[in-house]
Amino acid sequence: MESLDVALVGPGRLGSVLLHLLPDSGHRVRAIRSRRPPVGPRENAGPESPVSDTWDAPEPWPRVDLVLVTVPDRFIGSVARRLAEEKLVGDGTVVLHTSGLLTGTILGPCGESGAAVGSWHPLQSFAPNLGKVSLSGIFCAIEGDREAVAVGEQLAGDLGMKPWHIEPGAKVLYHAAAAMAANLSHLLVVEARRLLTTTGLTGEDAAAALAPLMHTSLESALRASGLEGLTGPMARGDLEVIARHLEVLPPHLAAAYEALWRHVSETVVGSG
Ligand SMILES: NC(=O)c1ccc[n+]([C@@H]2O[C@H](COP(=O)([O-])OP(=O)(O)OC[C@H]3O[C@@H](n4cnc5c(N)ncnc54)[C@H](OP(=O)(O)O)[C@@H]3O)[C@@H](O)[C@H]2O)c1
Which end of the chain is less enclosed by CB atoms within 10 A, N or C? Predict the structure, then answer.
């Protein structure tokens, strides 16, 4: 395994996880750059990590093999310009951002300075309330210049991830699928839980009541290649039950329910 000297820009939710894991996977964090000065102890940084600095009061930045840009998508372009203007990247440097939506081309200014650029996206959500730090077994979508892809693959492999090549033109659809799985399901659980609390359960009991139902459905859906395994009134084509549901749901949920039901009714065969 070749050890990489790494700089990271944007020690937020994902950046902090990477700062924590990089030293354990044999890589050295040489520089951390943030927007605002850190407040309090840096909980997630590895023991050997440097203290983060800001663009306003930058510490000297040693030559690094890899720059990880883990800032929100809307700032990646301006960070790329700054990295190039301040000559922090050049021949022999790989620059990877971690957006699921954008491709490596947003790092154009770094590419024009001689760096190899690409995107490196872990298909996992880093919620502040979970404290989960392992990336082991997580799929990582990688695209970009040849050297950037090679370094991205190495990094993913060293972190125990499953790297895979994505076509740049497929990234938006890929990201929409990920957002549906992670964010729409999150919203549906929150709404279902809220509806249950109006029937007399506490929020905590509502979550406990939903958990086995959701785990079973999720497991079944993940094993299925299509709609087989779907249960409930949609699977049975039970229009009366569906109509009763639509009567009592708030309009935004009724609209989503009905749209999905229309899709399922054209596809589903058999009963659940
Ligand atoms: N969180 C996830 O679940 C997840 C999963 C996969 C991929 N990603 C991707 O990872 C990237 C970061 O997401 P995140 O959720 O980790 O964001 P985040 O928690 O908001 O963290 C972003 C970090 O970047 C810093 N920052 C913003 N602008 C900067 C600049 N110009 N220079 C230096 N630092 C700057 C922020 O500092 P301040 O706090 O001072 O603003 C913050 O520390 C995004 O591209 C996102 O799509 C996120």
Answer: N
